[in-house]
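Hi team,

As requested, here is the filled-out complex form for the NAI run. I kept the field names the same as last time so the parser does not choke. Let me know if anything looks off before we queue the next batch.

— J.
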Amino acid sequence: MARKAAIIGGGVIGGGWAARFLLNGWDVAVFDPDPEAARKINEVLANARAALPALSDIPMMAEGVLTMADTLTDAVEGAEYIQESVSERLELKHRVFAQIQQSCPDTLIGSSTSGFKPSELQQNAANPAMIFVAHPFNPVYLLPLAEVVPSAASDLEAIERAKKILREIGMFPLHVRKEIDAHIADRFLEAVWREALWLVKDGVATTEEIDEAIRMGFGLRWGQMGLFETYRVAGGEAGMKHFMAQFGPCLQSPWTKLTDVPEFTEELVDLIAGQSDAQSGQYSIRELERIRDSNLVGFLRALKDRDWGAGRVLREHDERRRVAFTPPKDTPMVMAHMQVLPSWIDYNGHMTESRYLYASSETTDAFLRFIGADMDYVAGGFSYYTAESHIMHRGEAKLGDHLTGTLQVLSADEKRLHVFVSIQKDGQDVATIEQMLLHVDMKAGHATAAPQVIRDRLLPIANAHADLPRPKAVGRATGQRK
Ligand SMILES: NC(=O)C1=CN([C@@H]2O[C@H](COP(=O)(O)OP(=O)(O)OC[C@H]3O[C@@H](n4cnc5c(N)ncnc54)[C@H](O)[C@@H]3O)[C@@H](O)[C@H]2O)C=CC1
Ligand SMILES: C[N+](C)(C)CC(=O)CC(=O)[O-]
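And here is what came back:
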């Protein structure tokens, strides 16, 4: 039976939490009195479903079941984990905790609060020990960080249990050892935000110019090394001490207004909102979310290939899912999700033939990574090479179509891997590709037996797939009548 999480408050952040739990196989009950909540959550979920599968080569878990509960008590009943994500008002959060703890005083309650300390959240609670901060970052379903902040009244065993659950849904729980308003990351965001408000208010830069200053330069650096590692490198061979000697005195020069907050007048709000409309008003919020998600997926995949930063968290999550994954006995494995891009289209206005082989390679490559023949394996001098391919075109793919690559192992032994790939649109084949691959010693330049570690992953899948019906196209020769 699936595990259950309850999400109280289904706005931007609650919707993201719901998507992360659901796509990691948990059942989720959401309570939010807003009559629009179900629509909003389903829209966030649709974006998450489009983004998350592209992050990983491990087949997705069966999605959990989403329930919109009529009452808070219904939502939390039977939940192993509760995430409070209501609006940032302390008295509202207190009311919600009191209601939750009337029926489940001993269940873990993480709060998404951006600014309140856990000791503030715990005030007057029936069981303060179970309430802690689990502060996520938007979009919650893609970004791994959750700042986990206990107070002196917290139950540390419960905090460790919460961190374990967060890891199980692919997150990186950062244990904040000392409670502080706005935790760690939001202290930075607030400092940058304050400087940005001054720059707009003083007419130095528009919202667009500020965003360019971030995304063309230091934003890219921060996403992979953070602040201190980046500045260590900036100190040159002499490192951090030299960096501090050179730039430390700047703290005395008028580089910062951080202690001084601009007055939040209607005029300033209108100025910023107007500039933001001019900058990005041509996109709806959902379109911007999709652009953001697809960029993040690209970044995260690049970091995963390099086993670095947030990419390492993804790798570890993949490894956990690989171990938990049992090859399906009744269906081929869904290995790749792709979208038909403009460069894939030919003069006939549909996907050009070479891209069918490309889509097939994406699918088999994902499968090879899944059984352990990944880039590290190739760097060790062994790989699988394709010896033979037979493509059958069965439908048309057009610009923007979403394609899925599934793979069935027809047979496998120590050297050979015979597979049948389907490239599908809306569940229908647009092409099938039958391939024979050989395990190769790249230095010696000939086929050789795959090591036991690869066979241990491959052969159980081959055995499971032996019971599947053999596709009619298998073994078909070109020109042969059906
Ligand atoms: N938006 C952001 O970028 C981030 C926000 N957070 C935190 O997450 C929490 C939620 O923020 P958002 O999702 O942005 O706000 P939001 O305004 O999008 O959503 C809040 C939701 O809470 C619901 N709500 C209000 N009273 C409720 C009640 N009694 N029971 C159940 N639901 C109730 C509202 O109907 C609304 O849908 C806040 O504590 C915020 O500080 C954390 C990280 C990032
Ligand atoms: C602006 N904010 C304080 C709500 C931001 C956050 O809490 C985290 C985020 O996702 O940027």
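Two things worth flagging: The pocket of L46V6VHR (ligand 2) is lined by residues 114, 137-138, 186, 189 (CB under 6 Å). The mean pLDDT is 93.

Thanks,
J.
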